[in-house]
Amino acid sequence: MRIAIDAMGGDHAPRAQVESAIAAASEWPDIELILVGNPGVLEPLLGADAPSNIRIHPAMEVIESDEEPVKAVRRKSDSSMVVAGRLVKEGQADAMISAGNTGALMAVGLLVVGRLKGIDRPGLAPMLPTLDNAGLLALDLGANMDAKPEHLLQYALMGSLYRQKVHGIAKPRVGLLNVGSEAAKGNELTKAAYELLVQAPINFIGNVESRDVLEGQCDVLVCDGFSGNILLKGIEGTASALFKILKRELTATWTSKLAALALKPSFSRVKRSLDYNEYNGAPLLGLNGLVLKGHGSSDAAAMKTAIRLARTAIGNGLVTALADEFKGK
C-alpha cells in the first residue's frame, strides 16, 4: 500500500506531516509513505533514523491557501499537491492525502487524478460526530454548489459503499437532508432525489432534518454541496459557541471554577468526541483513485488518522468497488 502525502500543504506543514508519517510507518509496516515536497526541507525533519518504509518524492512548489484553485493547479505543475495527484494517476501511489487548499485539491482530483467512469460529479464526504459515537458520513459537503437529482443518487450509492468497505456496516442507513421528514417535503431537487433514492439498491430511510443529523438516525447523509456546506459550518459554529459559553460561565465565580475542576474529565471527553482529529480525512468520492482531504489545521495526530483511513480504504478495495458499481452507468 503506497500513500502519497502532500507534505507542504496545511497550517502545520511540513512538521505535522513528517511526524505523522514516522508514527504511522512505525505502527503499520505494510504501508509505504511517500512524502511529497522539498527534500531540503523534509530531510532534516525526517532524520537519519526514520523508518525504511518512508521516502521523499521531490516537488519544489507549494500551492498556498489563498491561491485561486484552478489557476494554481495549472501553473504550479511541480507543487507538492499536484505531484502527489500525479503519483496516484500514474499508479505510483494508491492514495494521496492533503491538508492544503481545499479548492485546489478538488481541482487536482478532477484535472489530474480524473473521475471514475459513470460518475458525473465527485462529492466531498467528511465524517461528522454523532451522539451514539458511530459517526455519520455526509456528502456532498462542498465540492459542488449545484446538483441534480442524479448526482444525489450517485452520492447515496458511493456513500453506502464507502461505509460498507471502510467501516464494515453491512446495510448502511441512507438519509436525505431535507426541511421535513415527510416524503412530499422539500424543494424540486430533494423531491426528485427522494423518488430516485426510494428505487435505489440501498437502505434508504427517507428524509432527515438538520436538527436530527447528529442524533445517529442514519449512517450516510445525502445533500447538495451548498446545503451540506451550510450544515457543516453551522455544526462547527454551534460547537465552538457552546464551548465558549461554557468556558465563560464556568470561570465566572469561584464556585463555578470549583465545579468546572470537578467536571474537567467529563468536558475533556465531550471535546474529544467533537474533535475533528478523530474524524480527519474526508474522501473525495468518485475519482479514479483515493484522494483524502485533511483539515487545514491538522496536527500530527490528525494526519495519522487520515493515514489510517487511507490504509483501511485501500485494503478493502474501495476504489475498485466504486468502479465496479458504476461500470456501464
Automatic annotation (TrEMBL):
One matching Pfam family: FA_synthesis
EC numbers for this chain: 2.3.1.274
Compartments it resides in: Cytoplasm
Keywords in alphabetical order: Acyltransferase, Cytoplasm, Lipid biosynthesis, Lipid metabolism, Phospholipid biosynthesis, Phospholipid metabolism, Transferase
Gene3D superfamilies in alphabetical order: Isopropylmalate Dehydrogenase
The keyword Endoplasmic reticulum is annotated on this UniProt entry: no
Enzyme class: transferase
Pathway annotation: Lipid metabolism; phospholipid metabolism
GO MF term set: acyltransferase activity
InterPro entries membership: FA_synthesis, Phospholipid_synth_PlsX-like
Keyword Cytoplasm among record annotations: yes
Main localization, broad class: cytoplasm
Catalysed reactions, semicolon-separated: a fatty acyl-[ACP] + phosphate = an acyl phosphate + holo-[ACP]
HAMAP family: PlsX
Stated family: Belongs to the PlsX family.
Oligomer status and interactors: Homodimer. Probably interacts with PlsY.
Entry function: Catalyzes the reversible formation of acyl-phosphate (acyl-PO(4)) from acyl-[acyl-carrier-protein] (acyl-ACP). This enzyme utilizes acyl-ACP as fatty acyl donor, but not acyl-CoA.
Protein name as catalogued: Phosphate acyltransferase
